[in-house]
Amino acid sequence: MFQKILIANRGEIAVRIIRACREMGIETVAVYSEADKEALHVLMADEAICIGPNKSKDSYLNMQNIISATVLTGATAIHPGFGFLAENGSFARMCEDCNITFIGPDADTIELLGSKAMARETMQKAGIPVVPGSEGEIDNIKDALKLADSIGYPVMIKASAGGGGKGMRAVFGASDLERAIISAKNEAKAAFGDDKVYMEKLIINPKHVEFQILADKYGNIIHLGERDCSVQRRNQKLMEESPCPIMSKELRAKMGNVAVKAAKAANYVNAGTIEFLLDCHNNFYFMEMNTRIQVEHPVTEMITGIDMIKEQIRIAYGEKLSYRQRDIEFRGHSIECRINAEDPKRGFLPCPGLVENVLFPGGLGVRVDSALYPGYMVPPCYDSMLAKIIVHGRNREEAISRMKRALAELVIDGIETNVDFQYELFERDEILSGYYHTGLIEGKMYNE
Length: 448
Fold this sequence. Notes:
Blueprint: E1 4-7, H1 11-23, E2 27-33, H2 40-44, E3 47-52, H3 63-73, E4 77-79, H4 89-97, E5 101-102, H5 107-114, H6 116-125, H7 141-151, E6 155-159, E7 168-171, H8 177-192, E8 197-201, E9 207-215, E10 221-233, E11 236-242, H9 249-265, E12 270-278, E13 284-290, H10 297-304, H11 308-317, E14 333-340, E15 342-343, E16 349-350, E17 353-354, E18 357-359, E19 366-370, E20 377-378, E21 385-393, H12 396-409, E22 411-413, H13 419-425, H14 429-433
Parallel strand pairs: 1-2, 1-4, 2-3, 4-5
Antiparallel strand pairs: 6-7, 6-8, 9-10, 9-12, 10-11, 11-14, 12-13, 14-21, 15-16, 17-20, 18-22, 19-21
Helix pairs in contact: 4-5, 12-13
């Protein structure tokens, strides 16, 4: 097994990885920007090394500095967590060239699946159901108009290299198509350095349901069930739960088999997530595959009892999966709420600042993943997520009651958060019934 792993990330996911490594007897190296010198992951790791100034591009996205830190500290593997360099094929290739194990899929797979258009083509060839749309990128407006007419409005223009809701435009008529394509291209170019876009049929009122998969280097692939991630704001997930409250056993088995088939089509190795759109008639369509650990992985851990980070590390070291599909059991119900430093009353305006006091909830079935502590200064230069509150219950009703209790106990003084907003979610009829969709928060009737 690896003797030392460098964690190329920050915040709660870095803390989460450090904890898994400690249980496995693996030493850890934390990297940090100047803004994060007092961060919890820095204090918890066996070693820590500064990799640059506050801005992400100069620190957490600085590939050369991270590789240098790995070599300098004698680490032989890098865990990228999520975000930053986790889905960067160039970084994975750089690790390979330097004989450093990248804990994730190989560079070619990351690049294939990182291009939504290429991923879509790959899945179509493998017989995976995809949302009707273009076979690749859109080259000109004339062809785009013909395609939109053939599949029917509304349609969605999406950035090929997209993520986080950027480079996406809903189009409800031909007169708006050219403007939407130009706008999406400009935003995609600014956000990703790539202006390629493609077109999909816009699915009305879908659920966003994703399947967690694990795959080793020997062709063994399993799924660990689904997560319902339909509660979103600007395409950013706010609450996730497993299992999906409206999913039948038959539909789960069908979607799970397709998820495994999709992973095989991409020759996938390590942990990954197949994301689907599920319509009101139980038709599902491949949307994308995330080639990393997900923010919401704890709900899967809670219902399966499987430590996803440890499995990632074992697979990267070359071990075979210790589970077969028949070994996976789903127990109870789990919900995760993302606690962010933002003010819902002011359009979810980010609210960094000094955390004066913190009291996390506890008790049976409650888990908190966070890097917060009293006196911590939340920097303005990174993602606003402060903590994840995860609960587990014997059934969905108990899980909801437990989450409301946990959110009521949670105290974060000194900055504005979305705790009250999250609590109020569980008083909405749509959430309580389970029949909510991706447009719930913003009142939209479609998915972006």
